[in-house]
C-alpha cells in the first residue's frame, strides 16, 4: 500500500505558512514505514527541533483504479478516518530554500499516525461538510471542515489517478487546516471526527 498526501489544500493553512495558492493539488508520498497504528507513541526524531502536527481527513481506497473521472470518484473510497502528517518544519524549510523535495521532512518513520477506526462513508450525511478537530493536552489546536478544501475528495482522486494508479488499501491524506504547531515531549494529541474521538497518541 502507499500513502498519498495532499499539500496546501486549505486556504487558511496556506496563509499561515505564507505559501502560494496552487492551481492544482500538491502531491507527495509517504512510505508504509511512516504509519503509526493502534495507539503507538510518536517518538521525536533526533534530526529535527521543530516537528509540527497536521491533522487531516484520510480516505481509504476501496478498489483499484486509474484515470478516474470525478463523477465516479466517490466509488473508489469506502471509509474516512483521521491521520496526522507530522512534518519536520525546520528541515522542510531548508529543503524548500534549495528547491529540493520534501521527503526527508515528511516521509520519516512514524510520521503518519492514523486512527485505528475508519468510519464508513455511508455514515456521513454530506461528504462536503465533515467536521474534525485536534486537541493537544486538552486544548483545541486545529479545527477543519471538508467544505473548506480547495480541492474536494472527487477532484483529489481524479487528479492523483491520472499520474498514480490507486490500489485497494491505499490511504489518501487530504490536507490540513490552519493551526499547525510544534509538538513537544509529553504532549498528548487527540483527534475528533464529527465529535467522536478517533485518534489518540502520546509524544515521547
From TrEMBL:
GO terms for molecular function: acetylpyruvate hydrolase activity; metal ion binding. The keyword Kinase does not apply. InterPro entries: Fumarylacetoacetase-like_C, Fumarylacetoacetase_C_sf. The lineage of its organism: Bacteria, Pseudomonadati, Bacteroidota, Cytophagia, Cytophagales. Keywords: Hydrolase, Metal-binding. Residues 2-190 form the Fumarylacetoacetase-like C-terminal domain. This is Fumarylacetoacetate hydrolase family protein.
